Amino acid sequence: MKIIVSIKQVPDTSGKVAVNPDGTLNRASMQTITNPDDMNALEAALKMKDATGCKVIVVTMGPPPAAGMLREALAMGADEAILVSAREFGGSDTYATSQILAAAVNRIGVESDDIVMCGRQAIDGDTAQVGPQMAEKLHLPQITYAADITKEGNTVTVKRMLEDGYMTIKTQTPCLITCIKELNEPRYMSVGGVFEAYSKPLTTFGYDDLKDDPLIDATTIGLKGSPTNIFKSFTPPQKGAGMMLEGNDKATCEKLAGILAAKHII
Fold first, then answer.
1. What is the pLDDT of residues 86-99, one digit of tens each?
2. Residue 223: what are its φ and ψ, rounded to 5°?
3. 142-196 tens-digit pLDDT
4. What is the C-alpha separation between 230 and 166, in angstroms, rounded?
5. pLDDT tens per residue across span 114-149
6. In sequence order, what E strands does 53-174 have?
7. End-to-end alpha-carbon separation of the chain, Å?
8. What tens digit of pLDDT does each residue of 195-253 get?
9. pLDDT exceeding 70 applies to what percent of the chain?
């Protein structure tokens, strides 16, 4: 059994977001982090590895510097890492990205008891589309918004979070699961893990490695093959400081009511 975890290096959106003239993010000018929801997916895979001894493979699509993020995943406990990187893949939207990642998963190979895991969504796009699109292109059953995962043999039971409750779903493996932050608390890298990370395999899949897959076509990958066009991208303005009222007496309550009434909130 193996678990393939798709992770993404994303801009640290706590700072200023730089945008290229064509509307794509200028990632080279920003600090990057591992997408938070993807860390929960990786932790879920590592917990299964702790329990069953299965193999965990992390895969990402991005520029060569994303290899550093993959080393961090190896230091956390993943067994193998794959960087999908080529100029032909640059500028891909969610549709094109899912095409490329699905082709990478096909090259890795999915067997009867395997699981593909992704984060729910990436903080740079917030679309939550890539995981489900990968599942469709890999012809795998999918369960999204996983808040708890239990695997018994070739059956996976997932507690799926909804807006007003939970849903429990069972499916057969192989399958794809997208994970949310409520699923777990990601572990830290250990000192020993950091040393071991540089002895574990980190492979790069370029365009030539994936071009024979039916999913890889010049018309459906990269910026030119992306049906989504960004009209405008910008950093939202900072919100001003709020007004603080201290006290729990009647006068404070009347003052608060007066402010809210003046703003036509009440």
1. 999 988 889 999 99
2. -65, -40
3. 999 999 999 999 999 999 999 899 999 999 999 999 999 999 999 999 999 999 9
4. 34
5. 999 999 999 887 889 999 999 999 999 999 999 999
6. 55-61, 80-84, 115-119, 142-152, 155-162, 165-172
7. 59
8. 999 999 999 999 999 999 999 988 889 888 888 877 776 666 777 778 888 888 898 99
9. 91
| Nearest to 46, CA basis, from 34, 58, 64, 62 | 58
Closest CA to 121 of 10, 226, 231, 17: 10
Distance, in Å, from the CA atom of 190 to the CA atom of 199, rounded to the nearest integer, reads: 15
CB distance 111 to 154 below 8 Å: no
Total Cβ atoms within 10 A of residue 15: 10
Could you give the count of Cα atoms lying within 13 Å of 6 in the half-sphere of its Cβ?
32
Cα–Cα distance for residue pair 102/215, rounded to 1 Å: 8
State the Cα–Cα distance between residues 200 and 203, nearest whole angstrom.
10
| Bond from prior residue into 174 cis (ω within 30 degrees of 0) | yes
CA distance 110 to 176: 11
What are the phi and psi torsion angles at 45 (to 5°)?
-65, -40
Beta-strand ranges (E) seen in the chain are 2-6, 9-11, 32-34, 55-61, 80-84, 115-119, 142-152, 155-162, 165-172, 175-179, 202-205
Backbone φ and ψ for 56, nearest 5 degrees, come out as -115, 125
